[in-house]
Design a protein that fits this description.
The structure is a homodimer. Chain A is an alpha+beta fold and about 180 residues long. The first copy, chain A, folds into 2 domains: about 30-105, Roll (2,3-Dihydroxybiphenyl 1,2-Dioxygenase, domain 1); about 125-175, Roll (2,3-Dihydroxybiphenyl 1,2-Dioxygenase, domain 1), CATH 3.10.180. Helices cover about 20% and strands about 30% of the residues of chain A. In chain A, strands 3-6-5-4 form a 4-stranded mixed sheet. A 4-stranded mixed sheet of chain A has the order 7-10-9-8, covered by helices on one side. A two-stranded antiparallel sheet of chain A has the order 1-2. At the A-B interface, strand 2, strand 3, helix 1, strand 4 and helix 2 of A face strand 2, strand 3, helix 1, strand 4 and helix 2 of B. Strand 3 (about 25-35) of chain A pairs antiparallel with strand 7 (about 125-130) of chain B. Chains A, B: Pathway: Secondary metabolite metabolism; methylglyoxal degradation; (R)-lactate from methylglyoxal: step 1/2.
Chain lengths: ~180, ~180
């Protein structure tokens, strides 16, 4: 096996290995969450967090849809490929959010997904970093977003957690330079 | 509220809104998963998937550690900031994987986290896109990685799902150009 040394300023810890040549070109592309109601989720991820819907795959026979979103920069929005099918573009990106909607859950008042932060635990959260935490908090309040943890709660004043429409935790941290 | 039109080639769907100016500069930074044994997880994410450990935050009083990893390109590895504290760098990246280790779980034979794909469902998977799916599958086999779905299983021949040491599903798709 051919390996590539980890960068000098990368950290080591028990278990950390050199980089296998076989993994070159791998891209950590997306995270998938199941959602109850796509209208509510799309309103939140586009209208509050400012994401862009890049791909919508519909599987009516199997009764589910997939939505692929990204938080694009102004430059990326200007340079988005001029094609209606952005599947290839999406495959090359990082930090895509895939939302899976199984038809009908939005009409079932008793239905909800599990956010991973109570038993049985597992998945914890997704996180957005923002230029100004206080301004972001004000923006979330303006939109009636529910907080799991406001910056002033607890000891970590530089972190907030909001909840998406399914109750998944979305950590909010400030970008550092 | 000032909004920015979604790009022309972006998709629309019920719920999709224009981009609020207040979200400009937001970055979808990371996804957090809890892990039972950091040695096994770091072996997998660095030694099989080729990620780099960029930040290791230790909270011995609260008995947990956080590990932040990224799948870097050769260019990014060469240009990593020359500082031991990459916290600021990490805050600006996309597709960071945060692994949370609560001390002691690695020694509890009966302990396991929930991967979100059986009841109660919620989180589904993370996904890596790879330059060559068949070569990636051969690499995973060489490392004894467990498959949830091999490419030849089911109708979707261009997708595989492997399992990380906690049983979280990792989708593998091929990069498209």
């Amino acid at each position: 096996m051919t390996t590539i040394a980890q960068p000098k300023t990368a950290l080591s810890a028990a278990g950390v290995k050199d980089i296998p040549a076989q993994s070159e070109g791998f891209v950590f592309n997306h995270t998938m969450l199941r959602i109850k109601d796509p209208v509510k989720s799309l309103e939140f991820y586009t209208g509050v967090l400012g994401m862009t819907l890049l791909r919508h795959s519909q599987f009516p026979d199997a009764k589910f849809d997939l939505y692929f979103l990204a938080k694009l920069t102004e430059e990326e929005r200007a340079n988005l490929p001029q094609t209606a099918d952005l599947t290839a573009y999406v495959s090359r990106q990082r930090s895509i959010l895939e939302l899976t909607h199984n038809y009908g859950t939005e009409n079932d008042a008793d239905f909800s997904y599990h956010n991973g932060n109570s038993d049985p635990r597992g998945f914890g959260h997704i996180c957005f970093s923002v230029p100004d935490l206080a301004k972001a908090v004000a923006w979330f309040d303006e939109n009636g977003v529910e907080f799991q943890k406001r910056p002033e709660d607890g000891s970590m004043k530089d972190i907030a957690f909001i909840k998406d429409p399914d109750g998944y935790w979305v950590e909010i941290i400030e970008l550092k330079y």
